[in-house]
Amino acid sequence: MSTNIDLIFKIAGVGILTAVLHTLLKHAGKEEQAQLATLAGVAIVLMWVIELLGHLFSQVKSVFKLF
Fold this sequence. Notes:
The chain has 2 helices and no strands. The protein is mainly alpha-helical and 67 residues long.
């Protein structure tokens, strides 16, 4: 259970860092880099979520003895 809480804090940390970086870059007039930074943050979080979904589907298959 603690790993789920750790993951939530990791996602929140990436979100806060991404928001701060986006704001700083946008105020500096570098809107393209701000969008890329936001996209990178979203991609990192999506990779974590996709990995967890893979584990979830593996557990569901083992519970119902599929495959």
